[in-house]
Amino acid sequence: MTPRIIPVDLFDLVVYGATGDLSQRKLLPALFHRDVQGQIPPGSRIIGCSRRGLSAEEFAALARKSIEDHVPDAERPPDVVSRFLARLAYVAADAGAEDGWADLGRLLKPESDRIRVFYLAVGPDLFGPICDRLASLHLVTPRTRVVIEKPLGKSGASARALNESIGRVFSEPQIYRIDHYLGKETVQNLMALRFANALFEPVWNAGHVDHVQITVAETLGVEGRAGYYDTAGALRDMVQNHMLQLLCLVAMEPPISTAADALRDEKLKVLKALKPVSGDGVAGLTVRGQYRAGAVEGEAVKGYFEELGAVTSRTETFVALKAEIANWRWSGVPFYLRTGKRLASRVSEIVVTFKPIPHSVFDGQAGPIAPNRLVIRLQPDEGVKLWLMIKDPGPGGMRLSHVPLDMSFADAFNVRNPDAYERLLMDVVRGSQALFMRRDEVEAAWDWIDPILEAWSTSGDMPKPYTAGTWGPSAAVALIERDGRTWYEDQDL
Ligand code: BG6
Asked: What's the whole-model pTM score?
């Protein structure tokens, strides 16, 4: 078996926006965890960069706090904390001004051929200007990589413009577009399940699958991100990226290998095969909602407008939609997607429902025969459940029950589940692009999303209200029930 820690080469990782939320909440704790695991080679450096004029000590104090806030006590050996903090450096540089950039150049030592990663944890309007500065300072070496993250545009056109501005400086193999869902353990397990087992592949098609559901439900509201969120909405924030990536992994053909382009070629084919949802068709195939005040898990919460501090807004905090993939394998199989904030519970799962048996040999006493379902739970409590029909034990004739073969990964493996960013950051350093989105994937996803956004904006309708703590507007239930199906609920007996 492959060892758990894959060695990486010596690197310098520059984080732009090092004092921001992503860096403090995710990147620094993730790097720290890899240091605890012994994956960061001695001499590697993490260079914080932002507009704020901090000293190296002030940045180290921020980093210490981020680790204390986000890494449990028991996982923070004091010697590793000191070792980690000693790797840090800080440079104040503003994307829009000259100051500081020469310092960064000196720190990086232009002649060095160590791996160099620029993680742009800043708004997309700064991606182009920062890349241009890096180019003008000759900081882009053949072993340099750049990492960017959503929002990668607001539409196909703006995503293309963004890709162009980065592509002027970095070649595609140097660009790492993060979708953190691809770094999640269970998302990768989807591939293991499909391609390391002989069981599923023969039935993974329109001949045997009735429909697929993908749910990403959150209990959180928009919190401190209302400013960004109100310009995006659930379709851009979750569907264009995370949910379409999940759909691709469920629906793609077996790739010829797990090499980055082999995988990405297959995902791209799925995106291109999505049946367009546009114009008059949008109203019947999509539902958008917006939460109002309510209670989530017993606690009273505000509505979206109050969180936003606005009187009104047309931004959706919930989307449900029905997609179809027009290809040989999936023709006629609906893929129902739903995601929202302030829903009843936090759960992300993919549910593949198989077709009913063609004929029952049992009499009416045996009870109804429910279809087989494969449930892949992404979070929380990652695992896989396969719903089967069995005979109820004991006397009383043949009575059938629908029961799950249930595997919780936490119980089965008893290991810490690394955060997606741990894996993804180390993949960047190792030069592995398999879990990152290629330019054409991002653009193809937008091409499918754009007409939905357009139809919503021309309709002038408001999103349908739903009470916080519920499963979204009733129209989302109607969307699937119209087809004689229901959203999966765990106690699905
Ligand atoms: C982010 C979205 O990409 O994913 C957030 O911008 C969302 O709005 C988050 O809350 C969900 O990620 P996770 O890992 O908590 O499921």
From this structure: 0.95
